[in-house]
Amino acid sequence: MASPPADDQDSPTPARRERPSRLIDVGVALLLLVADAVIVVVAALLLVAVGLGTAPSPRHPRPEHSRDTPVVAWFVIWGVPAVAAVGAFVHARLRMPVTAVVQGLFTLVCVLLAIAWTRMLLS
């Protein structure tokens, strides 16, 4: 008499999750690429607008203002790259390589924008 097939729970090696299909991976990557592009463009435009708004001009010298930046602003500036990094890690763990690469590049761009925002706010 043959023995019954073993359940996955009884097997000594844990079953690996199946990775999503390549089509789903590429589709999610494209959706995130569009969303990431919108975020980067808006952040860059805000950086330029705020930078131009605080630049001194001969007619209007830079006003004396408090150099205190709200803590919430720092959380937003450095929170977006942190969330993007977590997203890249999660997609890599889900075995979605195309999406992980897109999110990794988005993380890099977010870090560069965060550095630019920090330099602007501290100057």
What this model shows, in words?
This protein is about 65% helix and about 0% strand. The protein is mainly α. It is elongated, with a radius of gyration of 23 Å. About 15% of the residues are buried. The model has no long low-confidence stretch (mean pLDDT about 85).
How many β-strands, per DSSP?
0
The total count of helices amounts to 3
User: End-to-end distance, in Å?
Assistant: 80 Å
What's the order of the H and E elements? HHH
Spans where pLDDT lies below 50 across 5 or more residues = none
Provide the structure class. mainly alpha
Which secondary structure elements does this structure contain, and how are they paired or packed?
Elements: H1 22-54, H2 71-93, H3 97-122
What attributes does this structure have?
mainly alpha, single chain, 3 helices
Briefly, what is this?
This protein has 123 residues and is mainly α.
